[in-house]
User: Fold this.
Amino acid sequence: MRHRLSRRLGVKITSNAFFVRATALAATEYPLTVGRLIAETPVGPGAGIVIRIAEHVNVGFAVNTARGLIVPVIQHAEKLSLAEIAEEEKRLTAGARSNTLTLDDLEGETISLSNLGAYDIDSFVGIVPPPASTILTIGKTAPAIVPGQDDHAVRKMVSLSLAADHRIMDPAYAAGFLQCVVSRLKVPESLL
Assistant:
């Protein structure tokens, strides 16, 4: 589907663009994933936390460069089409590698995404980079045998891991978000 779409839209749609789009759409349904801890008072009267939910889903994604890891940000990703995300990802990746990104290209991250699939990593857990409260990590896509009702099939599978700030969301909420991302990826047409 990715290759067909790339030909039809005239823009190279990367696997990462699908992950960014699925993450952005899922975050609109699970807004605590783009929450930010503003204050925390652990004891005494009025103890609790103050969380601010971001107005937009700004997805920071890791780019490896000769100078080290750079995390450009796709602003307002929840409003962008798959093709627009792919174009922005291409622009930001090129800018990161040529050292031409502006401060605006690097600020405002509300949720993080890290994909080590290209490095032949099956799965890994990321560390949530403040001020974000959530990071989705993606391993390599590889063929796997998937059992069916009456037979087995070989399908491309990918491992996703999620790290979340549990001061902002509980594990069940984080799991619901991850299930939402997965359900969108299982039906890629939902990302168009």
